[in-house]
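Async update (no meeting this week)

Hi team, since we skipped the sync, here's where things stand on the single-chain job. The sequence we agreed to prioritize is pasted below, unchanged from the tracker. I ran it this morning and attached the output directly underneath so nobody has to dig for it. Comments welcome in thread, and please keep replies under the output.
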Amino acid sequence: MRLEDLTRLNRARAERRAAVVLTDLASAQMSLVLEGDAVEGPRGEAIAQALRTGKAAHVEIEGQSLFINVYLPPPRIVVIGAVHISQALARLAPVAGYDLTIIDPRTAFATDERFEGVTLVADWPEDVLKETPLDSYTALAAVTHDPKIDDFPLSAALSAGCFYVGALGSRKTHAKRVERLTDMGNTAEEIARIAAPIGLDIGAATPAEIALATLAQIVQAFRCRDLVTGR
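Output:
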């Protein structure tokens, strides 16, 4: 790989931006494509598929034998609220390969005893997210039922293009949330991305079942996300 491309690849990885390296198996020539670069036709389709799955692939395109190596930022979940659902989600997320962070300023809930071994930040989301901003490889789930805690990170997640944004609450609760987020400057198109009520509709009733439904919806959103490939 050219030094210039290696530098770009390392920069992309530091910025949590996805990339693929294409190797022509006949000539051993390598080229770098960053997510969002315009790539037309079958090559663009093959790159998009690799970015969705995160798996390397050997493809034949227009008489060329190519090996696609994928570099995806580790997908992560940020949960707003140290509640029972969060406890269950913290156990499930690593099994599916997701890093998980829980943020809750309520120190009575955000305790190491309740969340042993979990990355837990007992502070206001607006302060935490200044240090660790959201991005397109982050899923955000807001589960406190408290607008003072949930609304800012929900707005920030929509603006950052998080691949998944979900919020706990009834449709009536969400209607009021929509009004608040609109007042905060989010567009109707952005707000429509929020999964509310949160999670796939599996008839979940317990915190563990809601956590399972939420994780399933996060995985679905990640694997089916839109990718810009120039097609």
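Quick observations from my side:
The first strand starts at residue 19 and ends at 24.
The helical segments are 3-14, 41-53, 84-92, 125-131, 147-160, 171-183, 188-191, 207-223.
Reply here if anything looks off.
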